[in-house]
Structure formats: C-alpha cells, structure tokens
Amino acid sequence: MAKYLLDARGGGDQYDQSHVPVTRQYEAVGHAVRAVYSYSGMTDIAMATGDVDYHSAVKSLCNSIVNRKYYVTGGVGSGETSEGFGKDYSCPTTPTASRARVAVSCSSSASSTRLPRRRHADLAEETLYNAILGSVDLEGENFTYTNSLDSAERRYPGTVALLCRQYPRTLLSLPTWMYAKTADTLYVNLFIGSEVTVENVAGTRVQLVQTTDYPWNGKVSLVVNPAAPRRFSVMIRVPNRGVSQLYTATPDGNGITSLAVNGAAVTPTIEQGYAVLTRDWKAATRSTPSFRW
Predict the structure, then answer these.
(1) What is the pTM of this model?
(2) Contact 46, 71 (CB under 8 A)
(3) What is the percentage of the chain residues whose pLDDT exceeds 70?
(4) Which of 117, 146, 180, 239 has the most Cβ atoms closer than 10 angstroms to its Cβ?
(5) Do 156 and 31 lie in a common domain?
(6) Which of 143, 174, 205 is the last residue of a domain?
(7) β-pair partners for 210
(8) How many domains does the chain contain in total?
(9) d(CA 143, CA 134)
(10) How far is CA 169 from the centre of its chain?
(11) What's the rounded Cα separation, in Å, for the pair 98 and 77?
(12) What is the pLDDT of residues 69-105, one digit of tens each?
C-alpha cells in the first residue's frame, strides 16, 4: 500500500513532495511534517523490497537532512517555507524563523532510523533528549509548538498544541527503537529504564532488565535472563555524538569508559559501533557498561 501511494506521486508541488516521483527526490524540501512521514514510508519500502531507486533516494534524503538542514538539537524545519525546509545550511535560531515541530524532529530521525545501525540510534538519541524532551515540561502537561534555539517562549497546555497527538505516539514507539534482534543477537540501542521479553533468541525467550539514570549520568545496568542457558551475543551501543557534519561535540562525549559482567571487568570487541558480548548466558547475568557523559 505504501509503495502504491508513493509511486502515484508526481506532477505536483514541492510543498507536499509531489513535484517529482519520489525515487527522484534527493533533497529534503517542502512541508517538514509531510516530508519526514513520506521519507519514513520510502525507507520501509527500500528495506522490504531492496528497490535500488528507493534506496538511493532515501540515502540522499537522509544526507540532505542530517548534514545540511539539521539543528544541533535534532530539530528539522527552518520555517523559511511554511513549517518546512529551507535552503542548505540555513538553520535560523530566532523565534519567528524556527518552526521545527517536536514530533517532526523525532520523525526526521525515524525516517532513517531502522535499527540496528549505531549512527541511526545516535541520531534518535540526540533528537529524543533535545528536540523531543526539550519541548515538554517535567510534568508532561505543557508543550511548545515551535522550538527555536533563541527563545523564551512559554509552554502551553498540550490540549492546545497540535503536536500533542505526535508526542505520545513517539513515546509509545520507543520500545521498537530501544531493542532489536537477529537469530542469535540482542541489540541494546537506547539506554532507558525498561523491562522487555524477546522471543526466540538462539532458540529461547530472553528477558532483559535495564536500570539507569541516563542521561543524568552514563551508568547502565543490564540484567540478562534467558529462559534456558544459551550462547548468543548482546551488542550494546557505544554512543557517538558526532551525528552531523555540521557540528563538533565539545567536550568529547563518545565511547565507553568501562564494562563489567557479573562484576568482572571485560574488554569487548567493538563492531559497527556496538560493544559485543558473546558468551554462554545464564539467568541473572548482569552487564554494567559506563559511558562518557
């Protein structure tokens, strides 16, 4: 259905991304909300079908957003067009110019976030802790519609904000971003206190309990509880703050400072930005990674 709807596009305007067929769209333009949802569908099609034209367009669009039209907070949509993308390298910071909507900021990351890919998880994390959580008060009741970097704008009740419908949907989607699996591997992509049960990892059910005060500090505790002892890999993302070519992180917040399993320090292999723990897992095995913060 997504492919049918997207293939039918063309002959319209940049505003709603119908100016050319989607497989010939290589720059993020038009209304940012419409754009990132369209790009999300394109990403799913590229993954499901292996279509090289969709794959090429999605990679180009991701590069266009992340490295040319991306706020340091992870927000997208400069407001130079109606709630939309402006020209390359133009990210106004004034309240009247910036029209990056909170849920769209998350969607901009989600349009390229199909985990496990460390870089995509880093993008999602940056957006979550800045563009998303920065828009809502600690009580979770009041929001801002625009999220300019140079603003003293007061938040207002979520019932007023159109984005309130996107915000809970984003939070409810988190479990699908936090963890991923293959036949013999569990991926830990985001560090959020949680408990999840994953079916059929190396032929057994595995419960994973994560305890952390992240992002207030970089300490994480992971308890791995397989229903039966099995050998498999747990891959823990090693954060890298250099998600966009537009910015340099200072101070350096990358890397892992320590990792222990049941209290014994280990030096893991790093593969594609993940610390790899491959072992014979038994119930109540505790892994404690620490990251720079």
Answers:
(1) 0.86
(2) no
(3) 86
(4) 239
(5) yes
(6) 174
(7) 194, 222
(8) 2
(9) 9
(10) 14
(11) 7
(12) 988 888 887 767 667 888 899 887 765 444 444 334 4
